[in-house]
């Protein structure tokens, strides 16, 4: 078996809790200089003048330090640089830490905050905030929650622990329980298990149900109802994108505050009114390193159930 070349550690520190970009120069490259390669490789994001400025200002590093503007192209070499961070609308709600030790950090994520950097959400993410606030630059996610979903999300403090906990989710050895507020339909027979096939196409906001072998499964129960609303327990047995939201909408009881199901709605990035009424209530599993039974539970409530008038108001709604 061919030995794989070890990736050297980054010579650049994180910035605002975000790792620098790491690139490896192709082994079959025909560029004369690093600059020539970066101009070609980054052409969709930056212009040649920006590449020149990055090199002139010492912002592109190799394993041994910053690279000069005329640095020769070395096939297989690694480069690092920090991406330009665009302004982001601050999410005005805190990430609460439910549990922390030398292995795990379990957080109670608010609505509207992404779990990890993606797209236009980079520094305003739970991962970046926790890295900064806890002083844990190696923190990494064991799983993810949708940006609009609040509740329990788990991270590992060091990279050597990550695979063990990620594999729990991959192998469906974590019991995940969610809570939702949605319309109450007395004709809808519950509890029930929903199974169907879900596809999510890249670049398309909404997932959809299609004919074929089921790849998603959710248990849906009604906990209580009043005033035309129901409070539901949702237990996903698989983890497809938007699975619970799509299943609830498919039953005719879309989750309150959902801007995608049953119809995609426009929303401003700084509109924090009427958050999606979906909460990751708890995670339960056997710890893969210690063998201990673990259960972590959110302290948050769903505002549309505890104070529907406040949640539905134009100015006073605030996820909790």
From TrEMBL:
PROSITE patterns per UniProt: PSI_RLU
List each copy of the Pseudouridine synthase RsuA/RluA-like domain by range: 104-249
Q: Which SUPFAM superfamilies match?
A: Pseudouridine synthase (SSF55120)
Q: Which reaction does it catalyse?
A: a uridine in RNA = a pseudouridine in RNA
Q: Which Pfam families match?
A: PseudoU_synth_2
Q: Which InterPro entries match?
A: PsdUridine_synth_cat_dom_sf, PsdUridine_synth_RluA-like_CS, PsdUridine_synth_RsuA/RluA, RluA_PseudoU_synthase
Q: Which PANTHER family match?
A: MITOCHONDRIAL RNA PSEUDOURIDINE SYNTHASE, PSEUDOURIDINE SYNTHASE RSUA_RLUA-LIKE DOMAIN-CONTAINING PROTEIN
Protein name per the record: RNA pseudouridylate synthase
